[in-house]
Amino acid sequence: MYNDELQQLKMAWLAAEEAGDKGQQIALLRDHPTMQESLIDFIAAYRAAEPSEDDTRQDEILMVTKRGFTTSLERVFKPSTVEGGLRQLRERKGLSLVETARGLKLGIDVWKKFEDGVIELVSLSQRQLEHLHLFSILVLSSLEQC
After folding, report:
1. Confidence at residue 12, expressed as pLDDT on a 0 to 100 scale
2. Whole-number pLDDT of residue 82
């Protein structure tokens, strides 16, 4: 019986919360002194589980951080060179798709998707990014010598 009554009090408190009726919420606590402790525990848990302004701020910070990370990668790998011209750079160097993929320790299908812009830089591991960086330096320096 205690659990049923407590459940009904919780539901009444939630209904008052949704209606914005603070008076009703206080009345529920006042009118049921034997259940106050349990109801207060429920209210505290409810408040703790609510998304706070800090959570929203964390989401904003995460978005800014991701954007900053992407911008940094684009600056390091010069997006006009990487996204628009990897295939042309590879072909001008005379490298096959297979040679390039193996040199970067990637599957051929993965490298092709990367050249086509289907795969983003952020999906590569740190080691793969280092291989790509070295590859781009080698290809670009050999093009400058031509």
Report:
1. 92
2. 46
Tokens of 45: 């848990």
Q: Are 25 and 17 in contact (CB under 8 A)?
A: yes
Residue 48: what pLDDT?
76
Count of all residues that appear for the chain in the document = 146
Q: What is the dihedral of CA 71, 72, 78, 83, to 10 degrees?
A: -50
| Token pair belonging to 13 | 């408190």
Please give the Cα distance from 33 to 26 (Å, whole number): 11
**Whole-structure pTM value:** 0.37
Cβ contact 10:28 at 8 Å: no
Task: Give every residue of the chain whose pLDDT is below 70, as ranges.
Answer: 1, 51-56, 75-85, 121-122, 136-146
Residue type, 86: L
Contact (Cβ atoms closer than 8 angstroms) between residue 129 and residue 121: yes
Q: Which residues contact 10 (CB under 8 A, 6 or more apart)?
A: 39, 42
State how far the Cα of 134 lies from the Cα of 89, in Å rounded to an integer.
Answer: 14
Q: Return the pLDDT at 129.
A: 73
Burial of 70 (0-12, 13-18, 19+ CB in 10 A): middle
